[in-house]
Amino acid sequence: MTRQPHDQFAKEYLEELLNSLGKVETSKDVKSEVREIDVWFVPDASPSDTSELGLLAKMAVTSCLFEL
Fold it and tell me: Where are the beta strands (DSSP E) in 6-67?
């Protein structure tokens, strides 16, 4: 559950931006701890053109999480 409106907006924004590059999950539970990851991203094997996303595309080259 998101407590802050800006947090929900940022999750949805990252999901929309990263969707063309791979699999995106928001508010993903972490099993080893009682915590939740804001955005979990797994890139596609051959992503589409990433030049528009600049630094974000460079950060999303491998599986990663984004904590907003």
Answer: 22-30, 35-43, 64-66
